[in-house]
């Protein structure tokens, strides 16, 4: 099967979309962490709920959609360029980390945010003193730092392209 290639202009457009999506994802993650740290200084229930609402908006708009755009454009770039999706270790590592970070958001962050918002709405500023609120808040901060580290690492390996090419084992079938 012939591999589909793209001309330089189309490739540059796709790379630009990919880079912008990564920047939005990185920036959204950084904002989420900063607001999460700020959350601990809330003076009243309204400020706490407003900060959590802002974090939720960032999660919905600057994490989910840019992450999805990054994944899609990354797969397209891999398939339509010489790098391939599973020809080089650095591409496979980026794909695996992207999927891991997206799954963390889907399976954990959404539930954690829901809990924090409900707790803040139910008991107000007193939620900051609850141990479950504290541990859930800390989980979001740690996950955000992990995501930021993954995004930074993926950026570095994009430019340095370490670990080389994946060697295919040749299996000789005996008859």
What does this structure look like?
- The protein has 175 residues and is an all-alpha fold.
- The chain has one domain.
- The protein has 4 helices and no strands.
- It has helices spanning 8-39, 45-80, 89-123, 131-160.
- The two termini are 27 Å apart.
- Mean pLDDT is 92; it is low at 170-175.
Please specify the SSE layout and strand pairing.
Elements: H1 8-39, H2 45-80, H3 89-123, H4 131-160
* Individual helix count: 4
Rg calculated over all Cα atoms: 20 Å
Structural class: mainly alpha
The beta-strand count equals 0
Low-confidence runs: 170-175
The whole-number mean of residue pLDDT values reads 92
The N- and C-terminal alpha carbons lie at a distance of 27 Å
Strand percentage lies at under 5%
Q: What share of the residues lie within helices?
A: over 70%
Element string (H = helix, E = strand): HHHH
Please sum up the structure shown.
The protein contains 4 helices and no strands.
What descriptors fit this protein?
4 helices, 175 residues, mainly alpha, elongated, disordered C terminus
């Amino acid at each position: 099967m012939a591999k589909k290639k793209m001309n330089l202009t189309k490739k540059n457009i796709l790379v630009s979309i990919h880079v912008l999506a990564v920047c939005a994802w990185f920036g959204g993650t950084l904002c989420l962490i900063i607001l999460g740290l700020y959350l601990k200084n809330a003076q009243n229930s309204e400020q706490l709920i407003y900060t959590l609402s802002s974090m939720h908006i960032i999660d919905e708009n600057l994490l989910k959609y840019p992450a999805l755009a990054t994944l899609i454009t990354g797969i397209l770039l891999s398939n339509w360029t010489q790098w391939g999706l599973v020809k080089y270790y650095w591409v496979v590592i980026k794909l695996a980390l992207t999927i891991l970070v997206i799954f963390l958001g889907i399976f954990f962050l959404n539930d954690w945010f829901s809990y924090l918002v409900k707790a803040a709405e139910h008991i107000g500023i007193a939620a900051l003193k609850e141990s479950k609120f504290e541990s859930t808040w800390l989980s979001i901060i740690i996950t955000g730092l992990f995501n930021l580290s993954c995004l930074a690492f993926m950026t570095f390996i994009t430019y340095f392209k370490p670990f080389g090419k994946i060697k295919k084992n040749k299996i000789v079938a005996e008859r």
